[in-house]
Amino acid sequence: MFGYIDFFSAEIEKLKERGGYRTFLEVARMAGEFPAALKHGPGDGRRISVWCSNDYLGMGQHPLVLAAMKQAVDETGAGSGGSRNISGNHRYHVELERELADLHGMESALIFPSGYVANDAALTVLAGRLPGCVVFSDELNHASMIAGIRHSGAEKHVFRHNDMEHLEELLAGTDPALPKIIALESVYSMESDVAPLERVAELARTYNAFTYLDEVHAVGMYGPHGAGKAAELGLDGRFDVVQGTLAKAFGTAGGYVAGPAAVVDAIRSFASAFIFTTSLPPAVAAGALAAVRHLKRSDQERKQLQAKAGLLQELLRERGIPVVSEAAHIVPVLIGDAVKCREVASELLERHGYYVQPINAPSVPTGSERLRVTPTPQHSEDEIVGFARALDGVWERAGLPRRLAGALA
Ligand code: PMP
Fold first, then answer.
1. 39 carries an active-site annotation
2. Which of 3, 9, 102, 136 has the most Cβ atoms closer than 10 angstroms to its Cβ?
3. Cβ-based neighbours of 167, under 8 Å, separated by 6 or more
C-alpha cells in the first residue's frame, strides 16, 4: 500500500536537508504605523521595523485607500458574490479596469485575483492560441510568467538576462513566418536592474514579435502618473501588453493586463483562470482604484521613494557593502552564502529589530544569496542611517567581504 502521508513527510525532510524549507515570521502590520509592525511568536509581541515589504509606497495604509475600502465594505459587503460572468461584476471592477487602461494609454484592461494569476492566465491564452507561437523569455522572468508559458504549451527560448544580442540571435534563428512573443519584466526585483526596453521594442519591430511586459515592480513608482518604466523612458505604446499588480505600489491586492481591446477580450474570453474564479472583493477593487487615482495625480511618493532608496544606496556604498545593482528602488545586498545570509538577517532582527527576509535558492541562484532591502517613503532618514549602521556592524561581525570603492557587486 502506498504511504501517502509518509511520502510527503519525506519530501519535506529532504527539503529541510537541502536548506530550502521556509518558515514564516508572523508580522502584524499596524494601520498608520508602517514600516513599524509587531512580531508575534512564542513570548513575543515586539515592535519591529519592516525592511522587505512590497508595499513600496506605503499605499496599503494610505488614508485615502483605507477610507475607500471602508466605504465600499459598508456599501457592498465583503465578497463579490461570484465570478465576473455570474453576478460578480461590480462597478468598482469596471471602473478600475477603465482607470488602468487609461493609466497605460491602452484600449482595455482586465483585472485578476493576483498578479501571478494575471501572468499565468494571459500567457497561457496568448502563447497557447497563436498557432505555432514561439516565446522568448528572459531567464530571470518571474515564476508566474514561466507557469503561463508552460501552460500554453508553446515552444520557449530562454535568453540570458537582459542580453539583447542573445535575444536577437534567438529571434533571427526562428522561422519568420511563426508568431513570436517576447516576455520580460521592466524592473527585476531580485536584481534591481532594468531591461533595455528600447532595444527590446526595436527587436520586436524588426522581427515582428508581440511584446508582453511585466511592470509589477514599476507601476505606481515610475513614469508620469506612475504608468511604469516603459512610460518613464518615453516608450509607452511600444509594448503590446503591459501586466501589473495592485498588491505592491498600489498597496492592495489583484493583478491586471492592459493592451489592445481585441487581445484583452481574448484573454477575458479564453482564460480559465479568469473565467472560473470569484472576482476580487469590490472593496479591494475600490481601494486599488483610490491608490491608482492618487498616484496618477501625486508625484510625492515616487520622489520620496527615489530619495530614500538613493540614501540607503549611498550609505552602503560608503561602507563597501556590496549591492547587486542600483538601477531601481530595491536594494539587494549580496551575501553569497545561504547560512551567512540567514545569520545576518537573524542578527538584524534580534539585535536591532530590523526585519529583512533572507532570499536564498531557489528564488536566486545558490552562491548569490542576498538581503532584498526595500526602503520606502515611510522609512525616515534617521531610520535609514540606523539601518545602514546596524548592517555595517553585523557585516563586520560576520566577517563578510567589502567591495572596493566605486564598484558594484
Ligand atoms: N510578476 C513579478 C515580476 C513578481 O515579482 C510578482 C510577485 N512578486 C508577480 C508577478 C505576482 O504578483 P502578485 O503578488 O500580485 O501575485
1. no
2. 136
3. 136, 159, 182, 200, 203
